[in-house]
Amino acid sequence: MHLTSTARLFALAAPLLLATTALAQQAQDPGPNAPVSYDLSFDNAAQREARIAVTYRDLKPGAVEFRMARSSPGRYAIHEFAKNVYSVTAKDGAGRDLTIDRNDPYSWRVSGHDGTVTFAYTLYGDRGDGTYSQIDQTHAHLNMPATLIWAAGYDDRPIRVTFRPADPKWKIATQLAPVGGSATTFWAPHLQYLLDSPTELSEHHLREWTISSGGKTQTIRLAVHSADTPETIDAYAEKAKKVVAEQIRIFGTAPEFDFGTYTFIADYVPQISGDGMEHRNSTIISQPRTLAAGKFAQLGTLSHEFIHAWNVERLRPAELEPFDFTQADPTPSLWFAEGFTQYYGPLAIRRAGEMPLDAYLASLGGTLDFIVNNSARRYGSPQEMSLRAPFVDAAASIDPVNERIFASYYPYGAVVALALDLTLRQRFGSDLDAYMRHLWQRNGAAQQGFAPVKPYTPADLEAGLAELTRDPAFAKQFFDAHIRGSALPDFALLLAQAGLVLRPADASKGWIGASNVAGGGDEPVTLSEIPVPGSPLYAAGLTRGDTITALDGKPIATPADFRTALAALRPGQPVAVAFMTRAGPGSATITPVADPRLAIVTLERAGSQPTAAQLAFRRAWLGGD
Question: How far does CA 238 lie from the centroid of its chain?
């Protein structure tokens, strides 16, 4: 998931001025008479409402168009944020009511102003995640594209924002720069940065520590809104410190955060939805359970999102530069932007000493199994799956889709990263860390402060691999086979270097291509997934929505009946299946095959002993003992 960099053009109306290093040096609080100022109050938080007013000064003559975003960076589908905006008013500098016209659902046209317009509205918000906003008596969790309306054509102006908490105990966590000693007023150098700045108002716990890198000392902040004890949050902060340090080691240097701070905004409350969304100098991470209840599983999202401070926020796909808030923003490089990040998330935790080896291998094995045995690979490469993101990334539609033709670019890219990491170690005496550092210096590190970026294309990623290995033929072959194509290498051979075994998870178990059903009681038991193409159920002509009435002579009246019948299946032993499709009742004889699921285990657990070379390889790759 990604959000825009502060240097990005804001593609809505007039082009945004590129924020140069000189602008960064001049950027400062615009003062109480800022050319743009927002005021957000939460007096009606019990009804999930905020009242928001934005004032624009020194406007050009003529009508002003106020707009609401339709997309949010880091998400790739359309999101209709304007649907939660109502009770709209507009006044001029003298407080006179102004005429508001609407020609589409996403904008409001205001005319007759005197150079100043205060545009006010009520916002309803009750989904807390990385994309939407949630307001209640316990917090205001704000994703800015889902919260703030702006005037088109004034995107480069500095902005002041004042929050008026519903509870005096609420504190404010944000990457926005504070104004002087104020605890409630902040500023942004321009609209791009403002919309990149999620904000949490709540009675949260704050932990801070410093990092030193590249001759600079910066501050990491962890704001946790949860019912956890201070001691539990202290323990979480210690784990986060280790992960942050490991990721800095991977990339060789920390990013230069624009105001010297990076903020983890963590919501672990029951009403929240699980998510993670990166931003330039902060991230939203959320889960509807406490740290204690999750046994610190939330560290996985924290690790993933902090890697994005390099990969996506500064080392950035060209197709997202600039980000267009009016439509879906696709890129063929999400296999790298998200997938390689997905690979490094748990790996950084493992190397930091916060994940046992067996737990890491179980996670890696699950990811590998999901892609190796995924029928979607026959329908598209990692690049193709990246381009389908607008259809799947929290996209909503009422017509059903064929879930068997899409494999998420998160695990797909993570498996490609695994292949490249182990291949670089095997053939070149290098590793994926070196590749990421090379790309960081090549296309990412130049974007410090508000300097212009050097966004990458797929060709840049291939060229970077050729430069690292000094073998353009290898780079082309790898990209042809595994990025532009959907082939996978021999992972058993690659993993063997580390004394690891890739094997079936349970070869004695029969498999027929689908295991998820719905219904029972007064409803028939129906398949709730499309059988894997080529599987026994698929070959028998069954699909999602068809009813299973009997399996191997056993009546199926409940999902439990179906699970019991599945557990009794053995590879190679034919069974009868009775069913009902749209064409009427039917029956077939199917032959289960061996369960194709895969697992990764150590040679030690497989009953053998690794060599000294294999153990050394394992330590160099995974850390630990």
Answer: 23
